[in-house]
Write a structure and sequence with these properties.
The structure is a homodimer of 338-residue chains. Helices cover 31% and strands 24% of the residues of chain A. By secondary structure, chain A is of the alpha+beta class. The first copy, chain A, folds into two domains: 6-151, 60s Ribosomal Protein L30, Chain: A (2-Layer Sandwich); 168-322, PurM-like C-terminal domain (Phosphoribosyl-aminoimidazole Synthetase, Chain A, domain 2, Alpha-Beta Complex), CATH 3.90.650.10. A seven-stranded mixed β-sheet of chain A has the order 8-10-7-11-9-12-13, with helices on both faces. The first copy, chain A, has a four-stranded mixed β-sheet with strand order 3-6-4-5, with helices on one face. In chain A, 59% of the residues are buried.
Chain lengths: 338, 338
């Protein structure tokens, strides 16, 4: 008999969750009161919130027969939230967690969720970040919401709006791997037949690896604009373009180099890996603009340049020309698109 | 034709939400980047998170024929989150909001949600608090999660753990009104036949009125312990008892005085109003312990005293005796209880 959520009281379930939550150095008062208290040493708190919904953002059972474990969903919740803080040039200080759980959810799934959340936080390099509290609700589908706070450590935030013509455009972290992994999960292809590269893509979709040291490093290197690539390179690049009132010109060879890393997965599915590079989200890498004089920090890969909006036909170009033939076009992930 | 969420892109829906969100004085960077930035003047940030789930915490259509409007759900989201900050003796600084929305949700419902959230924040006295950002997801039922931050303004927080034998026990705000309102909503009784007191209870269930000035006032008056009565007086009192390792003795006459305010609703439904006083949640009043020497701030109503755990049979007593006959007993609201 699998123990399910409906068989425990809220207090009993919390007693299983709390010991599995990581306590970092930033927590002044932890779970157990009406609210937690977090250190904000430079008198500012960065804050963001992200949600995953069952059968929208993850599946308990995928078409290829694999499962999203509680550990995976907890890992991704941590990764996508920590990435939002990273993309401001900040370091995470705390998370508060809301879980909406159907009664039949196995208690072990919830325990593994807490373990995945904590494991990702430590493994990705955010060990100072504390799990500071949360809320439990019943519902008909699993909904996981995490709000995360961060500290700028006295630095200025790196916004989307600071890119200037002449800046170099660079990415850090994976681009398109999560999209390849998602496509593999949604395909009928047996995971036992995945090559190592394909298995890695599936793993990066389940457990993204945002480069958490890179956000503060980019800020220190003088990045003029930065954001988390969560909805796809083109869509997120468009956000920098719009916020900064500039256009972005990609280097076609650099995009092809990123696509080559996805070649095995693409061939197995008969798809174009460039589409994953351009429109795949959820890798939670960083897209940054740096002044031409800046030295790119370790891990950044140059993929183009910022140009004046007047000199660009569409705001986003490759080698000065409009995009052609990339399936998906300029659209990335939209939660309500049909 | 009602415009529904599925007919808009995420960007279009956000464009309808953002102008309806209140901007307070505490926001250093608002929505539109990867994260927001909030002022934390005393280098500490108080944080909490709360969720409402459709058909668990609210109904789009109630058995008595009335509806939870988007405005109501937004109001309650603000009220319950602001109350958590109040209960620490702090003032709210920001909210981040996650909305999980089924495609058929009317866009007007979402707009009204944002309006209710903002209206409650201002009307309840938290105008300094900013709506700092959020996340939209698709799903099969509406799930609303708000995380809220606050500032202690240099004060020490008032925890659940500081009550001492000899302290006076007092409440501020409504007790049992939301439970009465909920029972009326769940009953077949036509709202058109409600008396003024019954209509007020239904309104207080839909739009709770947490006494937001009272938390900081209680802290300044030297409160030794405090919490938000969200799950019912007995259950929440038990939390102070457990955290403080004390027992609580209620004044039977004071409890009856609170019950009398619910008499009309109780008579209409043939129920005992004392049960609502003891186990009704969601009014988001405060339960406080004050040293005997303290002057109770305006709005606080004395309902008993803190006694040593050794002198009490069960940890919670009335006039020194165990509770008897109160339906619901010592149990308040549990999200997973059958």
């Amino acid at each position: 008999m699998t123990l399910i959520v409906a068989q425990l009281s809220e207090t009993e379930l919390l007693a299983r969750i709390f010991p599995r939550l990581h306590s970092g150095t930033s927590m002044l008062l932890g779970p157990g009161d009406d609210a937690a208290i977090i250190a904000a040493p430079d008198a500012r708190t960065v804050i963001s919130i992200d949600t995953q919904v069952q059968d929208k953002d993850f599946r308990l059972l995928w078409p290829n027969g694999s499962a999203s474990s509680g550990f995976d969903v907890g890992w991704k919740a941590a990764a996508q939230n920590l990435s939002d803080i990273n993309a401001m040039g900040a370091v995470a200080t705390a998370m508060v967690i809301s879980l909406t759980l159907p009664g039949p959810t196995p208690v072990s799934w919830v325990e593994e969720f807490a373990e995945g959340l904590s494991a990702a936080t430590v493994a990705l390099g955010a060990g100072q970040c504390s799990m500071a509290g949360g809320d439990l609700s019943g519902g008909n589908e699993i909904v996981v919401t995490v709000a995360v706070t961060g500290s700028l450590q006295g630095r200025q935030p790196v916004l989307r709006s600071g890119a200037k013509p002449g800046d170099r455009l660079a990415v850090c972290g994976n681009v398109g791997q999560a999209a390849a992994g998602w496509a593999l999960q949604e395909s009928p292809l047996d995971p036992a037949r995945h090559t190592a590269a394909m298995a890695a893509a599936a793993q990066l979709f389940a457990r993204p690896q945002p480069p958490l040291a890179a956000g503060p490093a980019a800020a220190l290197a003088g990045a003029s604009a930065m954001l988390d690539i969560s909805d796809g390179l083109l869509r997120d690049a468009g956000r920098i373009g719009t916020a900064s009132a500039v256009a972005l010109d990609f280097d076609g060879q650099a995009l092809q180099a990123l696509a080559e890393k996805l070649r095995e997965s693409a061939n197995a599915l008969g798809l174009d890996p460039l589409a994953w590079v351009l429109t795949g989200g959820e890798d939670h890498g960083l897209l940054c603009a740096f002044p031409a004089s800046a030295t790119l920090p370790a891990g950044f890969f140059e993929i183009g340049s910022v140009v004046s909006f007047e000199s660009s036909a569409t705001g986003l170009t490759v080698d000065g020309r409009n995009f052609e033939g990339a399936s998906g076009g300029a659209r990335g992930w939209d939660h309500f698109a049909v």
